[in-house]
Amino acid sequence: MRIAISKLQNAVTALGRTVGRLGLVSGLMVASLAAVPDGAAAQTLASLPGVASSIATSGAARPITAWVTFCESYVSECAVNVGEPATIALTPAIWNTIVSVNRRVNKSIRAVTDMEQLHVADRWDLAESGAGDCEDFQLLKRKLLADAGLPRRAMRMTVVIDEKGEGHAVLTLITDRGDLILDNKTSNILPWRQTGYTFIKRESQDAVAWVSLGRATSPVTTANR
Fold it and tell me: Are the beta carbons of 134 and 225 closer than 8 angstroms?
């Protein structure tokens, strides 16, 4: 899916309205989304590796239990439309939108575990309270990017083992420049091989289900910040 550069202003303004409806940031921050973000210039499309690398899938995987519960409450966020493109065609305009959303969500959401905030081990939502843990950041990013016109089918929630040996959730963007990772631990958008994570499984592109990425035993939760 390609968005013309002339439409970037409208796409980012729409993001601001969406964030405002969710009540996640101040009016000043929402207004600032209407402008091309100064942070977007810090990481350019040209800085991505010239050779694209994609994560191989290897059969079905059991979903995280909290994801199943999330899908019962947020059906449209889990729906898979096989008529959508399976890959994001990166243009400068789309890249700037991705960088902007990633940075803004990382700055606007307060990192807190589900146990600290909700007294439960693991819960997935859209960080409506303005606080959340790893998966909440990524789910909100996906919502905003989908609202801006990017194909949800090419943006898959993904479970990894992080540098602490713990379960962690990131958002994989499946693009024509390879699989790129949006994370709340950094605002740099990295090719998956450069994250240092062990990739376990992610949402399927073909059904409301998960697929294995052929790695280690799956964690039960993604409950860290």
Answer: yes
Q: How far is CA 100 from CA 5, 30, 201, in A?
A: 15, 12, 26
Which region, left, alpha or beta, applies to residue 144 given φ > 0 means left and ψ of -120 to 50 means alpha?
alpha
Model confidence at 196, pLDDT cuts 50, 70, 90, reads very high
C-alpha 105: how far from chain center: 10
3-state secondary structure of 204: coil
Q: Does the reported pTM lie above 0.70?
A: yes
Q: Residue 32 phi/psi, 5° resolution?
A: -70, -20
Sheet holding 167-175, edge to edge: 60-61, 210-212, 198-203, 155-161, 167-175, 178-182, 190-191
DSSP state of 82: T
Q: Are 150 and 102 in contact (CB under 8 A)?
A: no
